[in-house]
Every structure is written in structure tokens, then in C-alpha cells.
Specification:
Length: 301
């Protein structure tokens, strides 16, 4: 059964993307495009690449196109995954996760067409350095605001991260990590995130400042989708009273875990939509859940 306080209703066509032929798809990043399409950047486990697909309605998605392949010779990206893409001017900019030897790093690539990306430098732009970053920095989510790049990222263990952190940059390549890190840790009193948190997306909100959608882990194998708000996106986070927003459905395609939310607010329809990767056993596909109406201050603790 769904959580009795669930805000979001799962789409009847779930999973909306992925099948046995395509294989596991995970850790998505959905953005509305200028032409009205939705762009989904995601990780494609079958060939260990990042990939992209487009949709008119958010339910039916085009054929996958790989956007960046691993570069094992680098020593830090035997696998590439967990990326985000922004278009700044005429350039598509990608921050992605590179993984090798049990560690994770964040790299940077660019593209003129949004489909074929090339690395700007051979070294990662962000590496694990602090005790809370442990072996890994991953899952970058980047906003470009007031001439600055702002990155929210997960850090900790490689199998699943533990905390959320923040950094800023003037050019997207050289980052200064916040002295406040980690900016959000799990709340052990909440059973749905008593183990750890990770995999976030953050969006500006006209009333609340910023909405942070993230993964909450009850244990290392059981995850759900949660939300918090913050006036500046870095401090004073308040959790949603309705957490978890999306839970695994017993016996379904997402019976074990619901991971990595990517949210879009449709102002015309006054509706929030969250895409996520659900897992049942060793297989992961993409699902969609929706909520009519916007979040308000009363929705947060």
C-alpha cells in the first residue's frame, strides 16, 4: 500500500521508460526545453554511459542516445553516470560522476548539440577530500544563478552516498566547497531516512526559496523519495510533513526502492511531476508520480 500521507500518485503506465531490452536506467535529470520538449539525462547501465531521451508529454520517451562514454585510461572513470545538463548560451554543459577503484569523482564535459559531449579537461572538477566525503562525491545537481554556478552533490560511500553537500564556482570548473558541509544529513528519528540520504535535485520556488528533492534510505537496500525546503538552498532546511512523497509498492516494478527524484512544476496545470528510478531485485526502470497543486509553507515542518 501507498504511505497514508503520500502526496504523489504513481502514473498508471509505470514504468514509463525501460524494459528488458534496454536494461537498467537510473539517476535521471529532467529539464524543460525551449522548444517545449522535456529532456531526460540519465545513466544507462547496459553500456555504462550517460544518455539522453526526449518527450512531449513526460510519459512517452524517444529512443535513447548515449552522450558520454567511459574513459578508463583516465584512471578515475571506468564508469560514467549520475549526470546533470544545463544549456548556458549556446553550450550544453554536463557535470557527471566518474567511478573507478571503489571511488567516485565529478567531471565536466560540453556539447554544441546536446547529444555528443566531449571532456573539457582530463582531471575531475571535484574529488572526495573530507571525512564526510569519504570515498565519493557524486550526483551533481547544478544551477546557474546570478553569474555563478551552484552545485549540490552527494558524498560518502560509493555503493550509496550518505550526506548532501554544496559548492560554488565562477566557471563550472573550479569549485569552492562550502564550510557548512555537509548541508543536510539524515534524520535517524525518521524511519524512512534513518540510514542515510543522497541523490538530490534542487529547484527555485517563488514562495519557499528552494525545494530539495532527495533519496531517503530506511536501510541500504530500501529507499524512498523525500523533500525539504530552504530559503537559500544551503541552510535552514525544513522537511516536508508529508515525507516520504513516494514509497515502493509491494509486488510492483519498484517494490524494493524508489531512487533519485527529478521534479518539474507545470505552472499551467498547477501540478508537480516527479520522475524516479524504481528497483525490483536487480532491475531498475523509470517511473512517474504526480501531485496536483503547489507546495506551501504549511507543508513543511
Amino acid at each position: 500500500m501507498e504511505h497514508p500521507q503520500s502526496f504523489f500518485t504513481k502514473h498508471p503506465n509505470n514504468p514509463i521508460f525501460g524494459d528488458e531490452k534496454i536494461g537498467t536506467l537510473f539517476d535521471i535529470y529532467v529539464t524543460p526545453q525551449a522548444d517545449g520538449l522535456l529532456r531526460m539525462d540519465l545513466s544507462w547501465r547496459t553500456n555504462n554511459t550517460t544518455a539522453v531521451s526526449f518527450s512531449e508529454d513526460g510519459v512517452r520517451w524517444d529512443t535513447l542516445h548515449s552522450t558520454l562514454s567511459p574513459e578508463p585510461k583516465s584512471g578515475w572513470e571506468d564508469l560514467v553516470n549520475r549526470n546533470c545538463v544545463l544549456k548556458i548560451g549556446n553550450t550544453f554543459k554536463m557535470w557527471y560522476t566518474g567511478q573507478a577503484n571503489g571511488r567516485s569523482y565529478i567531471g565536466y564535459a560540453e556539447s554544441d548539440d546536446g547529444l555528443n559531449f566531449h571532456r573539457v579537461q582530463t582531471e575531475p572538477v571535484l574529488v572526495p577530500e573530507t571525512p564526510w566525503e569519504n570515498l565519493s562525491v557524486m550526483n551533481p545537481c547544478v544551477l546557474f544563478e546570478n553569474g555563478r554556478y551552484r552545485m549540490w552533490y552527494s558524498a560518502g560511500e560509493t555503493f550509496e552516498p550518505n550526506v548532501l553537500c554544496y559548492a560554488e564556482s565562477c566557471n563550472g570548473l573550479h569549485w569552492e566547497k562550502s564550510p557548512l558541509n555537509p548541508i543536510l544529513t539524515n534524520a535517524p528519528q525518521n524511519i524512512y531516512e534513518r540510514e542515510r540520504i543522497g541523490g538530490c535535485q534542487i529547484l527555485p520556488h517563488k514562495e519557499l526559496g528552494y525545494l530539495l528533492f532527495y533519496i531517503g534510505y530506511r536501510d541500504i537496500h530500501t529507499a524512498c523519495i523525500c523533500c525539504a525546503c530552504s530559503r537559500d538552498g544551503v541552510t535552514g532546511f525544513r522537511r516536508c510533513r508529508h515525507n516520504p512523497l513516494i514509497l515502493p509498492t509491494p509486488g510492483a516494478w519498484d517494490a524494493d526502492s524508489c531512487y533519485k527524484p527529478s521534479a518539474v512544476y507545470d505552472e499551467a496545470e498547477n501540478k508537480w511531476r516527479i520522475w524516479y528510478n524504481g528497483r525490483n531485485g536487480g532491475v531498475e526502470y523509470i517511473g512517474l508520480a504526480e501531485k496536483q497543486g503547489d507546495f506551501t509553507d504549511d507543508d513543511f515542518e
